[in-house]
Write a structure and sequence with these properties.
Length: 195
Amino acid sequence: MNILIIAAHPNPNGFTHKIAETYKTTSEKLGHTVKILDLYNQQYTQDYLRMNETNRPLDEPKRDEMHKQITRANEMVFIFPIRWFDCPAILKNRFDQNFSHGFAFKYRSWKLTPAKLLKGKTARVFATAWAPNRVFWTIGAITLKLSFRLFRLDYVWISLKNFTVFGNMNKLRLPKQRAHMLKETEAIANRNKKK
């Protein structure tokens, strides 16, 4: 299986990237091919979406390469810190730029719903939050989880397999607690064992 991990945190030494590396290492041990895209790495950054006079997206040199990466991936893993009960702007821009009309979905005048063009792919989400988990699950589940599932992934027919939030990240977490989070990440990655 080809797995594309999309990490969206500006600190390359932060816990978000430790989650990405743990998922990658565990998946590779299972025989999967894994690529990590660090959205803050200059190699992978994309300008924010801009339109021309006819309301069409301007060319983005990296869009074709991103379409190839998405097409190749059987599973996409999104790893990011929660910002204002949503994913960071750099990740939202990734959706704007690359999960575009004609590639990820297509409107049809005779149907109420668009044609979903990424059928058969799966996704996993790992989010970190400064707030305690109880705050997120009482307030944020209505916004982030539902918007991610309904208005991003389901919209293009990507099946969400899990949505994991690691809260209280603003406090100094004991090494034991962070190790437990990485063990949970390993356990989720191990669900992709080859049959």
